[in-house]
Amino acid sequence: MRCLPNCSPTRPRPQRRIMVTHPNESASAPDDDSSATAFTIDRVFDAPVDLVWRCFTEKAHVDVWMLPERFALIEQDADVSVGGKWWSKMRDQSDGAEWHVGGTYREVVQNQRLVFTHRWTKTPSGGGGSEHLIAIDFEARHGKTHMRFVMSGLPDTGSRDGHREGWAQTLGHLEQHLATLAEAAR
Length: 186
Hints:
Blueprint (H helix, E strand, L loop, with lengths): L17 E5 L2 E4 L10 E7 L3 H9 L1 H7 L5 E8 L6 E8 L5 E12 L3 E10 L9 E10 L2 E9 L4 H29 L1
Antiparallel strand pairs: 1-2, 2-3, 3-9, 4-5, 5-6, 6-7, 7-8, 8-9
């Protein structure tokens, strides 16, 4: 199994699995045929939806939080518009290997929805891989943001579980960033 930066080798798991990795988060694989190739993370952020949206769409914020554990950002950029491209280069701090990923925005609805493709273009084992789809929905509720993150089109359960773990770590960094912003505003 090829291991991506947010992937750790795992054994195949049962088709239906729910894990709670954070008090404000739940993650699951769907019950249908896509269970081996998709996952969902639902999370609540104690921040207004416009701030969470800016954290996903503004370079100054993305540079701070959008990495899984043990990775450092080399550089990234994004044109957050339908048809716009995004890309990121990162370094695994444990072995110095570079990982490059990018994609294209398919849907952008301010403060509500982001849909974009995700494809590894450089990994330690070579370049390229299959293209995946990420859809993120944002909903304002009582001053907080309810976010649903869905990643689909993954090649197998190992990739699904590794990406789910990496995104859970990354969203934990977002929560820390939002807490830092809240503290600075006080």
